[in-house]
């Protein structure tokens, strides 16, 4: 890989991926539309160091502007992370925005890559939200897709449109289903970031639901590694679960956070919002076998890194 396009390069995972590519000597074209689903200042912080790199060219725009001849010139690999995230905000009139950013923009990208003399490899970021609330022990990629939120529906539809282009044209697309990614630069609306901030301020921690919901949490550098491995080893049409090292209940995560901060969290429980999955747990055997993927960062270590970054921001 000599040159890559990263959509959503100023976001949480996208900025980490861009930084890793640049460190590995790859020339990167980055696109980000600064959608105001959360504080744009956070995205600007993510770009602060990356933007100084001589091998990085940044375009501040949405994919819908369609300057594909410029963006895709001599690109070997496209990492497609641009999306409108978040389960809770995807209901009501906002659903049209999710359709635009998650489905229609992806189709435009696929069509543009198809027109290239040699289409680049395309690694598309999806979500465990396509599964809904998981049943049984662990969930592999062949499990039924039963999203319980409009956001999950758009991610499933995005996967379907990618699969159509693979089947019809052999376009080299692979998809990664992330299981709750966390770590430094995590979106401020996400649970871990919010919990740490509330505890640092001495506030009660607001937990939606009863705290017994469980998740498979994935540290951000492991998600980045999955992208790089998929670009190298995936077969067109492959779909991979990208998970962490274990499933854990949210209430137990809060206990770990409290230990790291030398305090006992004061918790207030509120009704869980519509669309939240009660349980996620990834079977990552396919990613292990095909890609050599293996999560390297344990939850306790990852939380320490995230806490250190939040404390550093607070001092700044």
UniProtKB/TrEMBL annotation:
Name of the protein described by the UniProt record: Nucleotide sugar epimerase
Location of the NAD-dependent epimerase/dehydratase domain: 4-243
Leader sequence segment: none
Family, as annotated: Belongs to the NAD(P)-dependent epimerase/dehydratase family.
InterPro entries linked: Epimerase_deHydtase, NAD(P)-bd_dom_sf
Pfam families assigned: Epimerase
